[in-house]
Amino acid sequence: MIVNDISLDFYNQKYEADLARYSLLKDHLNYTAHPIDAIEKCGHDGEMYPVVILSQRLPVGFFVLHGWNGVQRYSDNRKAILLRAYSVDSRYQGRGIATQSLRLLPAFVKKYFPGKDEIILAVNHNNINAQMVYKKSGFIDRSSRVMGRKGEQFVFGRRI
């Protein structure tokens, strides 16, 4: 799936070297995990699927899709999938990559997780920029709140 040279692909080792050089500002690390750390966690849970955001085949972003083990903290919808550890490499921010990748996400989930009907995520209440990007991409505030490692988080969802 490609939109304006942005595409999504499941992580595999061919992306490892690029992700090792992935840059996140210290402020962003308050809200998300570095891709290498997130990939390591995926190995401990069979329901976690790391995904790379590509721009002209170069890794520029990353996220994890997590099944029921992740969803259940935020929703009782067993057909939902959780979007977590979402980020865009700081060297590529401000180019619309986040918005484009999130617009690709529903079709990606439908293709690879056909039983899913909703994408859920939790966003820190202080992370205003991320909230705006998620809302612009069709996510809505579900009016549910949870406490995360850095404080209160809003639960957003998007039907697919």
Automatic annotation (TrEMBL):
GO terms for molecular function: acyltransferase activity, transferring groups other than amino-acyl groups. Residues 1-160 form the N-acetyltransferase domain. Pfam families: Acetyltransf_1. Gene3D superfamilies: 3.40.630.30. This is N-acetyltransferase YbbJ. It comes from Lentibacillus populi. The lineage of its organism: Bacteria, Bacillati, Bacillota, Bacilli, Bacillales.
